[in-house]
Specification:
Layout lengths: L1 H18 L34 H14 L6 H8 L5 H4 L3 H13 L1 H29 L8 E2 L5 H22 L2 H17 L1 H42 L1 H70 L7 H13 L16 H10 L4 H13 L1 H8 L1 H4 L8 H13 L1 H4 L2 H61 L11 H47 L2 H6 L12 H6 L9 H9 L4 H4 L8 H4 L3 H12 L13 H11 L8 H8 L8 H13 L5 H29 L1 H17 L2 H56 L4 H35 L1 H15 L4 E7 L4 E7 L6
Parallel strand pairs: 1-2
Antiparallel strand pairs: 2-3
Helix pairs in contact: 1-18, 1-32, 6-19, 7-18, 7-33, 8-18, 8-32, 9-16, 9-18, 9-31, 9-32, 10-12, 10-13, 10-14, 10-29, 10-30, 10-31, 16-25, 18-19, 18-33, 19-32, 19-33, 22-32, 25-31, 26-31, 27-30, 28-29, 29-30
């Protein structure tokens, strides 16, 4: 408990002095700036494992739980610590009587075991003394005479078996002596490790003390990184603030400019389309006229041929009439010449294109893209460091000046030096006294070794007695004539019994003393320390100081009403939290107030809100461009009757397929007799084929081939695009007016909003940095895990694991072995008479009426 209070109060002293001065810090990083406090590595492990011997310790713990099953007596301990229990003066008070009874009830298991041990200690030498006197008087088995009994061999065997079993219990089953040897050696080994454990803990404490100032310096040095980032963003106001304003306006402006740009491209494409279609129609008219002329010539030639007298012949009349009837099919099927001209719409489009709408749109784009440059030119004075007013950079520099003084305002180094001096003194004291501890431990180890060897010697006597007695015993030999080996076995048994009488009460004294001390330390210190009930007792209000509700807060802040407990401090240190959060130092020094930059942040935000950024001269499209759009909407492109053109272009050039007509004409000519008529018809058929090849096919290609995609399909697409042209233009102009109105009425609010965001971003760097500083100072700087580890090393490791556990295992093993000496002693004395050579024996002689026995003395020298 003293160690516990000592370590915690040292920590409190360190932090209490730190509180009286001041400290300021900073915050966390942004999504760009990331701050990380360098981790501190410690050498001492925060947990201890006993290794294979831990199983034996658990056996002892189970036994202790059986002996002492009661819960930790918190109420009793509280009253004792409050000095309300004094036997010297108030032993007869009812409350003290009740408290005494509670103590007895709690210690009843230990008391019973201790009383039994004391009885053993008192009675064993007394019984041994009486037993020795009794044997000197030839009583209690002291007479060297053995009476012959019928069950004598059976008793001898039973005594031998019982002694063997008990000896095995002493040495093997209970493993008492082995437990003693193991515990004795383990304790010495752990004492030898104490120096290394102490050095490791002191090294970690020094690391803690030396690392705290370095951590603070590192944290404060990160301000320069934050400042550089903020100044970089201030210098980059063109893209950040200007770009932010531009980003806000983009959804309103860019779609309108894109529509106007697309409209300008559409005007150009419409003109090109109309020109291509108009030219194609002219070519089609010319080709159609040529085809019509050729067909008319062929038709007239056929009519002249059919006037031949040959057609008057009855066999040819029908053929000629059939041919004459089909001549009406040799006509042009289109009316290209009747299609209206597209010259007037083309002239209107040419007039519209006199104004370069694309150039006007690019001016709108340029005005929009110049916003960042305009913002930068108009904010130079506000951001300047050398401005007469306390503008942004000068305000940030003032924050930096305050932060740079934080290291001087926190007097941690002086306090750490004092605490380091205490650590050095403690280390010197431990190193000065460790040799004495090791020397005394060597005496203890030697004494434990003697105890274990003594028990081993007794068991060896019993084993030798059983071995010699069993091997040398001859059942055909009378008691007075027993051999030397058997007699030696009996002597060994009696020597073992004698040594047991002489020393077992001393062994039991050692067992009782170590049992009482080890059990109470385990139950009253080790277990409650591990389950932290001991801290709960120390945290009892008004316990350690009757005027303070909470002792720690009274020590640290001189404010005992603050809820600061030993358990909470220990738990926080185990979790490696910083001193500030562990000791709730905000009750004495609120770091949040010292890290508050609300005033500076307000000044910076006001500076940005009061910036005069004028973007009212942004014009997306001037009046010339607007008139150009309106003229395009009224150009009449959407009123052209495209269906007439599509209908003509979808017709075939001729009413009949000329090749089929020519083939049919040639077939009919073949039915005629040879002559001029037949030859003339064949010539005309060949001419029709030539017309198809030279006129119809090119015309078809112009109408349905390549030209179909550029004439028919282009006209069809043009019809679709021009549909609702006036409404499209009106919608575009309406969107333009809306965007221009937005720029005129809302741009000032956008500038204010983006300026606030920009200012908040700049201030946010410092707020996040200061937040990181706050978290680091409160949670990470001077993380007190080495203090909790040192406390664990002193109580849980050194006292409980290094000393108490091996001590408990030692008395547990030696105690069990000593208890088994009692039955072993009894059976050894009983069995010795069956192995030793007697001075006299019973002799039986046969009489007439029966066997009459009498006592006969034989000299022990008789062979």
């Amino acid at each position: 408990m003293a160690l516990l209070l000592g370590f915690l109060l040292l920590l409190l002293e360190l932090c209490g002095n730190t509180l009286s001065m001041g400290s300021q810090s900073s915050t966390k990083g942004t999504e760009v700036l990331e701050f990380e406090l360098p981790a501190t590595d410690y050498e001492t492990k925060d947990s201890y494992k006993a290794g294979p011997i831990g199983g034996l310790f658990q056996i002892v713990h189970v036994f202790l739980h059986v002996v002492q099953p009661n819960d930790f007596p918190e109420d009793i301990l509280r009253k004792i610590l409050q000095k309300k229990f004094d036997f010297s003066t108030d032993y007869d008070k009812p409350e003290n009587v009740v408290l005494t009874l509670k103590i007895i009830y709690y210690e009843i298991g230990v008391i019973i075991c201790a009383v039994l041990g004391l009885l053993f200690i008192i009675l064993m030498p007394l019984v041994g003394f009486c037993f020795g006197l009794c044997r000197c008087c030839n009583k209690c088995g002291g007479e060297m005479h053995q009476r012959q009994k019928k069950n004598g061999p059976y008793q001898r065997k039973c005594f031998a078996v019982c002694l063997l079993v008990i000896s095995i219990f002493i040495r093997e089953q209970s493993l008492g002596i082995i437990y003693g040897f193991v515990a004795n050696h383990h304790l010495r080994t752990q004492i030898e490790r104490t120096r290394k454990l102490a050095d490791s803990n002191f090294k970690d404490l020094r690391t803690l003390m030396n690392g705290a100032p370095a951590q603070i310096s590192y944290i404060l040095s990160q301000y320069s990184t934050t400042k550089e980032k903020a100044f970089s963003d201030l210098d980059n106001v063109k893209s950040l603030l200007g770009g932010g304003i531009q980003k806000q306006l983009r959804p309103k402006v860019i779609p309108v400019l894109d529509d106007i740009k697309a409209m300008a491209e559409e005007i150009k494409e419409t003109r090109e389309t109309l020109l291509n279609v108009n030219n194609t129609l002219k070519e089609l008219r010319k080709s159609s006229a040529q085809l019509n002329t050729s067909l008319s010539d062929v038709k007239r030639d056929l009519e002249r041929s059919l006037n031949d007298p040959m057609c008057s012949v009855p066999s040819a009349t029908a053929t000629c009439n059939n041919i004459r009837t089909s001549l009406s099919q040799l006509d042009d099927n289109t009316n290209m010449g009747q299609l209206p001209s597209l010259d007037k719409p083309i002239e209107k489009i040419n007039d519209i294109l006199q104004t370069n709408l694309s150039s006007l749109v690019q001016q709108g784009y340029k005005s929009f893209n110049d916003i960042p440059e305009m913002v930068q030119n108009q904010t130079t004075d506000i951001i300047s460091v050398h401005a007469a007013l306390p503008y942004v950079k000068s305000t940030l520099n003032s924050i930096g000046s305050d932060i740079e003084n934080i290291g001087e305002q926190i007097p941690i180094q002086d306090q750490l030096s004092n605490f380091m001096g205490y650590i050095n003194d403690t280390e010197t004291y431990i190193h000065r006294n460790l040799p004495t501890l090791e020397e005394y431990d060597s005496y203890r180890w030697l004494g434990g070794l003697v105890v274990c060897c003594l028990l081993t010697l007794i068991v060896i006597f019993y084993y030798l007695g059983l071995l010699c007695g069993t091997c040398g015993y001859d059942q055909n030999t009378t008691p007075t004539r027993r051999g030397c080996v058997s007699n030696t076995g009996g002597i060994f048994l009696m020597v073992g019994a004698g040594v047991s009488f002489l020393f077992c009460w001393i062994l039991m004294t050692i067992v009782v003393l170590t049992f009482v001390v080890g059990t109470n330390v385990e139950k009253l210190l080790c277990e409650p320390y591990q389950n932290r009930k001991l801290f709960q007792v120390l945290d009892t209000p008004y316990l350690l100081n009757e005027n303070w509700k909470h002792y720690l807060s009274g020590m640290v802040f001189n404010k005992p009403d603050i809820n600061l407990t030993f358990e909470q401090v220990y738990s926080d240190c185990k979790e490696n939290r910083g001193i500030y959060a562990t000791l709730k130092l905000e009750n004495s020094y609120n770091i949040s107030e010292h890290l508050n930059i609300q005033e500076q942040a307000g000044n910076i935000n006001n500076d940005f809100q009061n910036m005069e950024v004028n973007l009212d001269n942004i014009v997306l499209l001037d009046e010339a461009g607007r008139k150009n759009l309106m003229d395009f909407g009224l150009s009449g492109i959407d009123t052209i009757n495209y269906d007439v053109y599509l209908a003509e272009l979808s017709k075939t050039p001729t009413k009949v397929h000329l090749l089929s007509f020519a083939d049919d004409l040639e077939v009919k000519a073949n039915h005629l007799t040879h002559g001029n008529l037949k030859q003339s018809l064949k010539n005309n058929a060949q001419t029709i084929r030539m017309i198809h090849r030279d006129r119809v096919i090119p015309l078809e290609q112009s109408m349905y081939g390549k030209a179909r995609s550029s004439a028919y399909q282009t006209i069809k697409d043009l019809r679709q695009k021009s549909s609702g042209l006036e409404m499209k233009v009106n919608n575009t102009i309406s969107s333009l007016d809306s965007a221009q109105d937005f720029l005129r009425t809302r741009i000032s609010s956008v500038i204010v909003e983006e300026s606030q965001k920009y200012g908040s971003m700049i201030v946010g760097y410092f707020e996040r940095y200061l937040q990181w500083v706050k978290i680091s100072i409160t949670e990470k700087i001077a993380a007190c895990k080495p203090v909790a580890t040192a406390l664990d090393s002193a109580v849980n490791v050194f006292l409980c694991s290094y000393i108490i556990d091996p001590m408990n295992l030692f008395w547990f093993g030696i105690g069990k072995a000593t208890v088994f000496l009692l039955p072993a002693l009894i059976f050894a004395v009983k069995l010795a008479k069956y192995y030793r050579r007697m001075d006299s024996e019973d002799v039986y002689e046969d009489m007439e009426n029966g066997n009459i026995g009498f006592h006969r003395h034989h000299s022990t020298q008789t062979v």
